[in-house]
Design brief:
Elements (H helix, E strand, L loop, with lengths): L11 E6 L4 H16 L8 E6 L5 H9 L9 H12 L1 E5 L5 H15 L8 E6 L6 H11 L7 E6 L6 H14 L5 E4 L6 H11 L2 H4 L7 E9 L8 H26 L8 H13 L9 E7 L22 E6 L11 E6 L6 E8 L14 E7 L3 E9 L7 E9 H4 L8 H11 L8 H18 L10 E4 L8 H6 L21
Parallel strand pairs: 1-2, 1-4, 2-3, 4-5, 5-6, 7-10, 8-15
Antiparallel strand pairs: 7-11, 8-9, 9-10, 11-12, 12-13, 13-14
Helix pairs in contact: 1-12, 5-6, 6-13, 9-13, 10-13
Protein name: Glucose-6-P dehydrogenase
């Protein structure tokens, strides 16, 4: 049965593979609970956890609900959690053994036997490392694929390590699952502010008119984490900051920010435009890249002090790379993607800096900037120059500020995973990564990844930066060479007021 845009409304099973892992406990199950609490899950849904870990149902329920937030111990939420436990069960088994999947099938059919009507749907969620994607996807297709309704599969990143491994992974998945049935999740596409970019751009002529090389000087997309690898360095060292953040999350934000207006909000129209703009980006040059690795400071250990990290690792924990888009709208505008661990704050934002005003009546005044803060505390603010109050005429930088917590006080902003799982249940691919989009993304990043890994000569050594700093001291000069200008000394956006919200 074709699965396009058919919503799962009842008789639905959700199977979570990797149910004992961190991703499932911290993201998948809390998101499923959030949808259940707000009545967005299909009627009579049943959730089945599957993993290698042997545990009883009580232990599984404890793990599956341990990260669900209930800060005020609300009796209503406590009751909902108990209901949520009743509609979930657990099966343990191998990811490669056909007997285990046959056993899972018996369990699924047992649950479905209580459903009314002939039609049943299944959503399979792979909260797993990529090394087991293929055996699980293949076994599920062989043993757990229902013929009585629609099947869909959600695959988590990373999708490969480079262009060749990604193509191999895609090719193997396609042997079992059609593109229509496959949902490749990048949770940044589910974030409220990323989804808002389309509306800000295409529903506001005032913004869209200035959205090109004639008005914009540079764009920075920044991801900052205030902690290091904290004992998970072995895993991180295998992937590095570019695969972990830039090649997927930040590139997704860039594509939504720069694509042309889609014909409609239909998923394929949006994804067509994203692919078009990514195809206009050539592979990144080493000369457009700054790499860093954090060292011990402020009482915190350095990256190489993590016992799980190889002692001479040159894996970057910070990267700034500049991308160029060769099309009529963006030719010549630098897009600087920056991401780092062990920095001074937690923040993800887009900073669009506009060009200088014509010289003459004003000299040395701040540039306009439009900032979209994706997290924490979603906000959009436009930095403007205004006259200082009083008898003097002097331009002062200030801001028009849309901070979500102030403007939308009663609104609940859903978690990204809630939004995306709901999209998969509806069959809406808009916020998922299409196969050709993934291919183009790897083309942009693979040469720089091979350079970093020393596949074409000596591997570059990242520059050190202290734990808890803004990043490498070389960063200001790196951004400066692309024409970015810092604001006038003394301008501070009043973030302190957020603590009162």
């Amino acid at each position: 049965m074709a699965s396009t845009n058919i919503e799962f409304k009842d008789n639905t099973l959700v199977v979570v593979f990797g149910a004992s892992g961190d991703l499932a406990k911290k993201k998948t199950f809390p998101a499923l609970f959030g949808l259940y609490r707000d009545n967005f899950l299909p009627k009579g849904v049943h959730i089945v956890g599957y993993a290698r870990t042997k545990m009883d149902e009580a232990e599984f329920h404890k793990r599956a609900t341990q990260y669900i937030k209930n800060p005020d111990n609300s009796p209503e939420i406590t009751e909902k959690i108990e209901e949520f436990k009743k509609l979930s069960s657990y099966i343990s088994g191998s990811y490669e053994d056909s007997d285990a999947f046959e056993n899972l099938e018996k369990h699924l059919q047992g649950i479905e036997s209580a459903y009314q009507g002939d039609e049943t749907h299944r959503l399979f969620y792979l909260a797993l490392p990529p090394s087991v994607f293929i055996p699980v996807a293949t076994n599920v297709k062989k043993f757990n694929y229902t013929t009585k309704g629609i099947n869909r599969i959600i695959v988590e990143k990373p999708f490969g390590r480079d262009l060749d491994s990604s193509r191999e992974l895609l090719g193997s998945l396609k042997k079992s699952w059609t593109e229509d049935e496959t949902f490749r999740i990048d949770h940044y596409l589910g974030k409220e502010m990323v989804k808002n970019i389309l509306v800000l751009r295409f529903a506001n002529i005032a913004l869209n008119a200035a959205w090109d090389k004639n008005s914009i000087s540079s764009v920075q997309i920044t991801f900052k984490e205030p902690f290091g690898t904290e004992g998970r360095g072995g895993y991180f060292d295998e992937f590095g900051i570019i695969r972990d953040i830039l090649q997927n999350h930040l590139l997704q934000v860039l594509s939504v920010l720069t694509m042309e207006r889609p014909v409609s909000f239909a998923s394929e129209d949006i994804r067509d435009e994203k692919v078009k703009v990514l195809r206009a980006i050539p592979p990144i040059e080493p000369s457009d890249t700054l790499l860093g690795q954090y060292v011990a400071a402020n009482g915190k250990p350095g990256y190489l002090d993590d016992d799980t990290v190889p002692h001479n690792s040159v894996c970057p924990t910070f990267a700034a790379t500049t991308l160029w888009i060769h099309n009529p709208r963006w030719e010549g505008v630098p897009f600087i993607l920056k991401a780092g661990k062990a920095l001074n704050e937690a923040k993800v934002e887009v900073r669009i800096q506009f060009k200088d005003v014509t010289q003459g009546i004003f000299k040395d005044i701040s540039r306009n900037e439009l900032v979209l803060r994706i997290q924490p505390s979603e906000a959009v603010y436009l930095k403007l120059n205004t006259k200082t109050p009083g008898l003097y005429t002097r331009a002062l930088p200030t801001e028009m500020d849309l901070t979500y917590k102030r403007r939308f006080q009663d609104a609940k902003i859903p978690e990204a995973y809630e939004a995306l799982i709901l999209d998969a249940l509806k069959g809406d691919h808009s916020n998922f990564v299409r196969d050709d989009e993934l291919d183009v993304a790897w083309k942009i990043f693979t040469p720089i990844l091979h350079w970093i890994e020393g596949k074409n000569g000596a591997a570059p050594k990242p520059v050190p930066y202290p734990y808890g700093s803004r990043g490498p001291k070389e960063l200001d000069a790196f951004i400066g060479k692309y024409g970015f200008r810092r604001s006038q000394e003394g301008y501070v956006w009043p973030v302190t007021s957020l603590s009162n919200l």
